Write the structure tokens for this entry.
Amino acid sequence: MTDRYVRVKTAQGQIHYGLLQLNQSVQILTSAPWLGGTPSNELIAPETYRLLAPCQPSKIIAVGRNYANHAAELGHDLPAEPLIFLKPPSSILPPDGTILLPPQSQQVDYEGELALVIGKTCSNCPPSQAHHYIWGYSIANDVTARDLQRQDSQWSRAKGFDTFCPLGPWIVRDLSPTALIQTFIQGNKLPLQSESIDRMVFSPDALVAYISQIMTLLPGDLILTGTPEGVGSLHHGDRVYIEIEGIGKLFSNVSIGNPLPVEEAAIEIA
């Protein structure tokens, strides 16, 4: 089986990078694997840890309209060059976490995506060398407040709420260029999204090179490579999962977020 690199938190509150074993135990790594971490002799037993998001990026760069059918379903032309935006690291949600629907939005959509994990500092990279900087691959959900995206002149609010970037459950080093990405709402047998990742408008190598010519990519940074056709709304009580062949399944629950705070009336002093 392909090595699955995880990040876990033990019952004692310790956080480790590790290798997931077939029996679900975790072999601890000495540090993040893209920083040279190597397997130790320590094992964490099954059911004594919880999975965290598999990396802690300094930034998350996402790509819009990178599948032709998705651009068409939203009524947009294909971009002439990658359309990029940022999601805050605070939006990351671990596997089996809960996406919180914010009160500011009436339409929150799922967007299943392939995530690239950067392995070493990358700046002004040519496309022919970009593959050397991709350390591995994971699964992300670029959750989007679609009504706010339409309303605002830029996408920071629509894409940036806490819990709006489910990530995981682990990272793999290799992936077939024709791997299938699919999104499901649990209980439905048919996928809501289904597309081969080689149908991207701009390939992973092209994205890494383009972005590196704008901003320096650091080890552990994430690039979300765009979503295929079939985006749709999430509702309270849903359990959504994204599956990519060769990686696995990323599950998330969906619930109502906290209401906006109400300013307390000033107390008059007699």
Observations:
- The chain has two domains: 5-51, 60-256.
- The chain has a mean pLDDT of 95.
